[in-house]
Amino acid sequence: MLDRDRCLALDADDPLREFRAEFVLPEGVIYLVGNSLGALPRHTPERVRRAVEDEWGGRLVGGWNDAGWYDLPLTLGDRIAPLIGAGPGQVVVGNTTSIAVHQAVSAAVRLRPERRVIVSDTRNFPTDHYMIQGLAQALGGYEIRDFAEGRFDDAAVVLLSEVDYRTSERHDVPAVTARVREAGALMAWDVCHSVGALDVDVSAADFAVGCTYKYLNAGPGAPAFLYVNPRHHADAVNVLSGWHGHAEPFAFEEGYRPAEGIRRFAVSTPHVLSMASLDAALDIWERVPLDLLRAKSMALGSLFVDLVGDALELASPADAERRGSHVSFHHPDGFPVVRALIDRGVQGDFRAPDILRFGIAPLYTRYVDVWDAAHTLVEVLDKELWKDERYARRPAVT
Amino acid sequence: MLDRDRCLALDADDPLREFRAEFVLPEGVIYLVGNSLGALPRHTPERVRRAVEDEWGGRLVGGWNDAGWYDLPLTLGDRIAPLIGAGPGQVVVGNTTSIAVHQAVSAAVRLRPERRVIVSDTRNFPTDHYMIQGLAQALGGYEIRDFAEGRFDDAAVVLLSEVDYRTSERHDVPAVTARVREAGALMAWDVCHSVGALDVDVSAADFAVGCTYKYLNAGPGAPAFLYVNPRHHADAVNVLSGWHGHAEPFAFEEGYRPAEGIRRFAVSTPHVLSMASLDAALDIWERVPLDLLRAKSMALGSLFVDLVGDALELASPADAERRGSHVSFHHPDGFPVVRALIDRGVQGDFRAPDILRFGIAPLYTRYVDVWDAAHTLVEVLDKELWKDERYARRPAVT
């Protein structure tokens, strides 16, 4: 096993090492929650200031043309596309992942009107289930089936998360997509917990949704994105048929006529200030080789697993190929353990009922961070430091 | 009729005169498009900077608790409530007006399951129609009826804009609400073109939606809001049943259980940076007496109408009581007329097919601005200055 000096040497040799300097990272804290909210890129404040003062303050309503606001959902979509294996004109940015799930699944069931089953997965993030439940209840007559049942021949659509938000287990996207589509169902992937850390490729799927505030570092509540395979651009229906998806929004016609291409999945006025922050974040992603990103993520994750060893029960796959970019462990008192770690400068998070998560953001997490975090974790457990009563109190958002 | 000096005197006596200094307004331009995108409040850049650098950069994921991000949809909703006649716990902020329309209308039809008619109005902004069309098509079996038919006894819900986005005609909200509800239908108001300029009161209605980037000055693409009358809080269903509307979002249960109260209409992760800008804008609104706002809006609108006189055909009601806060005229070549005005420092806008709009934002529009704008307009028409070919070119967003 490595020692700490060897970790420092690996950091010095890391081909991605220079990206870390582009982020604002807190002093004295090892931030392993980039899988929940990514760090602030150093140049983002200036880009947001420009949107507020120069574009809005300086151009006022003229910003819709002069500052490119109107096209942001498409221009930002084109910048995200390479991160998920998609091409230009296939991704639209806006709204939230939950709303994108509603758009994707409602469009899918309309494309398979004779099928009345929607397949979901208990490993999906709960909001994906909730959105499907709301949609199925509104439409009436739909069965929601668990993915584990493995039957898709009467399913309209299968919605899965590429990476499990708790255990980090990664689906085999090409194999599952092929299996689902061979059964005549449509495939929708949620890549919230993979985009920006893995070599994501959803190009064979029918739909994909994802968020930009985790590994992509676009800021709290940054807009989501929706990928629609071009084979559906002519026929897929956007149930949220707002004016920005209209063929001629500024003709102010009474009837909805969908735009050509991916624009029909735009809904309405884009959140320009939140999008400015995403625009800044994507400047960095243009320079990131995804193969190196994935390789570093796997190496750091495996180092964490090795260093923790038997001190905790691993909740993630031991095989890095089958894992996303966070590493999870079971502990019956996971919450106070996480609090004790935070108190010692190691920030991970807790997911009910018993999951400790440590997110590895390969752009700014170092080998030495993993070394120090794992050793602090083992010490907190060995010495039972988490049994201090001040670690028991729960905030509103955990 | 007044002269220019009298306008200057009226500005000096205006009880709202000090608000103008709180906004960044362009030099040499009379900005009469505050009904489309409100001006930048001077303190907003610092509030947004704080959200980016201090909250996100400084607290990272801790901002969800420490900076109050998680509750923003409700805390901002409570700050908007007094502007629409609502009380605390009745308004939720987030998403866009189009999405709020989908939430309100889909909830309403579920509350009146035996009725299969949705009433809309050609005076609604088109996206309201489009969203209803998308919803009706998805649900199947619904008739969309025009408000002008005047029959509501078999209608589930009536959706109207308080103020017509083209003509500025204002509905009699209490009378229409009473008539619709007496017929057993639910009433939903779109107050996009009235909130922040009129004495809006939707408290008797069932639902209301509105945007914050027009008269409220919250910035390009700032989030929308949704009012739900408390009589429906226990029974209304949010079809966009995302995790932030769940009773216990951080329990990560598999089944959706709606939260109590207005929170069940939250959907998912709020757009924090766009909301920071709204938060700043609302600081101003706490100090604005709505009766004075409405009185000034009416006085300025009537002055504009009087000064233009017979030079153009009025598209708005001549009676200020029946008008919103913009004034509109017909002109068969409206687009080049607007371009010629912009070239002379008067910014209005054009809405197809033939409407010239001039928005009066009572917090920063002055009597002398109206005087100068109207005189420039009359000159452009009298001297046919709009017939220059460079005014014919149309940008993407008009």
Automatic annotation (TrEMBL), chains A, B:
Quickly give the catalysed reaction: L-kynurenine + H2O = anthranilate + L-alanine + H(+); 3-hydroxy-L-kynurenine + H2O = 3-hydroxyanthranilate + L-alanine + H(+)
What GO cellular component is one of the record's annotations? cytoplasm
Name the source organism. Answer: Nonomuraea cavernae
Q: Positions modified as N6-(pyridoxal phosphate)lysine?
A: 214
Q: Which GO MF term does the entry hold, naming one?
A: kynureninase activity
Binding-site residues, pyridoxal 5'-phosphate: 97-98, 125-128, 190, 193, 213, 243, 269
Could you tell me the superkingdom of the organism this chain comes from? Bacteria
| Cofactor(s) annotated in UniProt | pyridoxal 5'-phosphate
Describe the protein's quaternary organization and the partners it interacts with.
Answer: Homodimer.
According to its UniProt record, the EC number is 3.7.1.3
Name of the molecule in the record: Kynureninase
State the UniProt keywords alphabetically: Hydrolase, Pyridine nucleotide biosynthesis, Pyridoxal phosphate
Q: Which GO terms describe its biological process?
A: anthranilate metabolic process; L-kynurenine catabolic process; L-tryptophan catabolic process to kynurenine; NAD+ biosynthetic process; quinolinate biosynthetic process
Q: Which family does it belong to?
A: Belongs to the kynureninase family.
Q: Which pathway features in its UniProt record?
A: Cofactor biosynthesis; NAD(+) biosynthesis; quinolinate from L-kynurenine: step 2/3; Amino-acid degradation; L-kynurenine degradation; L-alanine and anthranilate from L-kynurenine: step 1/1
